[in-house]
Amino acid sequence: MKIKGIEHIGIAVNSLAEDAPFWKHILGLDHSGTETVESEKVSTDIYNTGKGKIELLEAMNEDSTIAKYIEKRGQGIHHICFEVEDIHETIAELKEKNITVIYDKPKVGAEGFLVTFIHPKSTGGVLVELAQRQS
Amino acid sequence: MKIKGIEHIGIAVNSLAEDAPFWKHILGLDHSGTETVESEKVSTDIYNTGKGKIELLEAMNEDSTIAKYIEKRGQGIHHICFEVEDIHETIAELKEKNITVIYDKPKVGAEGFLVTFIHPKSTGGVLVELAQRQS
Q1: Prediction pTM value
Q2: Cβ of A123 and B22 within 8 Å?
Q3: Domain range for A118
Q4: Less crowded by CB within 10 Å, the N or C end of chain B?
């Protein structure tokens, strides 16, 4: 598998309206977009840091994994996303190594990336997203 | 303040020996160093991803903030670190904006960076490190 770098860090927040100002105005990060990701039931605010992005994640409803995460652990860092060259090849390689991949077939995530996740039980407690840019 | 990008993501692990293989052998990240940071009472394994680093953090003793973090929350993502151009200017600016900075005077962190942290109560639950590279 070929990892190209940290694509973004996903942060679970109660409210984009209330929690985004720290990232935007205090840290002064460059807001590059807002979108909803239906497959994950989240609204997301995306910020470029110059090297990797910050994605703030607000649950669209109580069934969202983000709502469940906040209920259990509170607001905070939800996952790390690495950009990979080829998501299908990556998934095949991980499965061959008995790593628990959440989506066997990649879904379309924020910004049109093809994504899957590695379960935290395979990583030492970290939810790892893998994403391939679609040209 | 001028943020230059995500410098690293700090991950609290029980044991570098047991937990590093996922990052090194499964993801295939490039191991760039191992060091102890006395000021934080941690041993750290550092991996370059191509864009930002992963720092695995193992407590040197039970007084380490990493030991306390794992006891409370389990293994997982501990903090995000942004590289800044000027740490002293950044600290002054944050204090002026009533943001809770943990070290008023920067300490020397891993790889010789000058660092401080923003308390999670000021960020929406995320421990944010800020680091200036020393030339």
Answers
A1: 0.96
A2: yes
A3: 3-132
A4: C
